[in-house]
Amino acid sequence: MAQKISPHEDIHCGYCGAEISGKLCVLRGKTYFCESCLLELPPLAAPTAEDSALYARFAEVLTQALDLREHETGLHSKRVACHTQILARRMTADPAWLHQIYWGALLHDIGKVGVPDAILLKQDALDGDEWDVMRRHPEDGHHLVRSLAGLHEAAELVFAHEERFDGSGYPRGLCGEEIPLGARLFAVIDTLDAITSDRSCRKARSFAAAREEIVSMAGKQFDPLAVEAFLAEEASLREMVALKCG
Ligand SMILES: [Fe+2]
């Protein structure tokens, strides 16, 4: 029977691991399940290769739908996922780690689904209350991605994608190597894409302008190692940005 857990009890869903304190859940045997997982019980059969390809495409479509709200040039999320891979491949050839980086970068802003248009699309500076709402999106995204089996490291990238190397980012104010490497690489690429893309409030600037800004923020907003990787991959990134603008 469904019941509501006291917010003071530390209870997690036995299937996805999400915290369910204060939420509706169901006890099966000695295990609690959240409402979402209950709908899937008994566990689904292992996905086939065809299912996996469909899930991957579905996730891309979902991020394209999110991009439609905020990014006029489209494909922002897929672009930053692919471009972050270029930097990540300089650090490792481990396919499992690269997989986590790709999914974390692709889904980085999934938590913005909970940010109202009046805040997300506001042209003027956000006020204090609006910033409080905006600052929640990494944690909301982390909560969503963490519930997907096998994407826990990707979820950590999502949680940390607005942090800055010098500790001035949000939501946790992490600094240096406290920030997962994937998120440090992603931060450089996200800025590259933001500067070289048209927005409703301003036109895209050149790759050279983005390069200058990224280099000037090494050790402040960005990990110097990530900036080094960016400079080492400059030729291929420049080509990919040209393709987008072409
Ligand atoms: Fe974000």
Q: What does this molecule look like?
A:
There is one protein chain. The longest helix is centred in the N-terminal third of the chain and has 22 residues, at 49-70. Strand 2 and strand 3 (31-34) form a beta hairpin. The protein folds into two domains: 2-38; 49-245, Hypothetical protein af1432 (Orthogonal Bundle). It is mainly α. Strands 1-2-3 form a three-stranded antiparallel sheet. The chain has helices at residues 35-38, 49-70, 76-91, 95-106, 117-120, 128-134, 137-146, 152-160, 181-195, 207-216, 224-232, 234-245, and strands at 2-4, 24-28, 31-34.
- Helices and strands, in order, run as EEEHHHHHHHHHHHH
Bound molecules: fe (ii) ion
How many E strands? 3
The proportion of residues in beta strands is: under 5%
Look at the structure and give the CATH class of the largest domain.
Mainly Alpha
N- to C-terminal distance: 58 Å
At CATH level 3, the topology of the largest domain is: Hypothetical protein af1432
How many discrete domains? Answer: 2
Could you name the CATH homologous superfamily of the largest domain? Hypothetical protein af1432
Which runs of at least 5 residues are low in confidence (pLDDT < 50)? none
Number of helices: 12
* Secondary-structure-derived class: mainly alpha
The largest sheet is:
3 strands, antiparallel
The strand order across the widest sheet is 1-2-3
Shape: globular
